[in-house]
Model the fold of this input.
Amino acid sequence: MKIFTQTYKEDANEAKRQYYLAKLKFDVKEPKGKRDLHKLLFTYLEGMQWVLFYYYKGAQHWRWFYPYHYAPMISDLGTNVVADFLKG
Done:
């Protein structure tokens, strides 16, 4: 963790790249990696929505699951979630 923190201080984009390579096996500098990252972020947001529905409206269904073992870096969710993910 100490090495990651130091790398993040020096170059945040490289630290994120190393995180995604090590944990999720895709390179965010490649076109396919960028698509994989977008899918990961979209799925993570879906999960957040599912949890909110669960607590505020009850479980709508139990079929949904998060298919990854790791969460995305929160800074990658973007500044405009509606424009980036919901095409609004």
